[in-house]
Predict the 3D structure of the following.
Amino acid sequence: MFDRRTLIGSALSGAVASAFIPRIAWAAAPTSKRFVFIIQRGAADGLHIVPPLGDPGYAALRGPMLASLEGARKLDAIFSLHPALARTGQLFGAGQALAVHAQASAYRDRSHFDGQNVLETGGAQAYAEKTGWMNRLIPLLPDADRKALAFAAEVPMALRGPSDVSSYAPSRLPQANDDMVARVSQLYAGDAQLDSLWRNALATRAMAGDMAGDTARNGAETGRSVAALMTPADGARLMMIETLGWDTHSAQAGRLNAQLRGLDQLVGALVDGLGPLWSETLVLVATEFGRTAAVNGTQGTDHGTASAALLLGGALRGGRVLADWPGLAPGMLYEQRDLKPTMATEGLVTGALAQHFGIDPLQLARTLYPAQSSLRPVSI
């Protein structure tokens, strides 16, 4: 045993943008602070991303995957960081990254759709809440212009609600030439609503640089695109990035290495692109649930419960792992198969955002997670 420690222009999207992975969603809010939520859809394996190599039970459960962790960065006596997260490791060294382990949302089953819904809505159960916690955050930010800009197929659940929010997705199609853009502009010039939407669409696409691709192959492009959307004075203040491909039922070591390398490149490009604004930025990387403690017969892992989250930011008091670690002994596993959850993802989100935006944590908890009256914000 260890010590317990502590995303209106959907009508325009066919002309300007089409769906891409990862999709980018954002809403502008009048504050110097920036917040980015990177969701890992598919249930990312926290036990492989932030492996507890110092736990004596880990090797017995994960023996076939140990070779893939050679060169992992040691974070403390128990935890290390996957070697593919090289730039993220540098942030740990600079005190600008924090890992939070054995955390889970209120969801306790193993459906991706249900788990993602709970993670994004903040409900006590799947589909009980009709709005997302990021949308509920917007009215708590300083009063001023909170206009939404849209360039994508759809808004992720975490950003849906009464506050204006839309999404942007760079196009995979050949870029329209200047003559086509000019003709469409002339076509919309006599329509007050369409002209405004079209001009905003062109401006935002120009800011983003129209990058496209999935995280594993185009992480750096995504990071640069996000940074370009967030650095202008009228740019995004809240951003959500969807990343896919984290459901590693087989051949996990190689697949997760590629996923994490892409994520690491995204983070590095975001840090570089934001420049001085990195000190005003907080990034949360989280997933709907974790994976089984033991490796399955196809060298992968199956749907589990608790996982690890990452917090990154220029002003973060990081360089450590926050965990009420339950251990990996057989008797300590949740339902005899998963890492036991000892920390609420909702408490983590509340505590981190309260500190970042200077909002009373109890007020924030009541607003973001109204269905969870006993929620206790985590001190970051």
User: Anything to note?
Assistant: The mean pLDDT is 84. Residues 9-172+211-368 form a domain with the Alkaline Phosphatase, subunit A fold (CATH 3.40.720). The radius of gyration is 21 Å. The first strand starts at residue 24 and ends at 27.
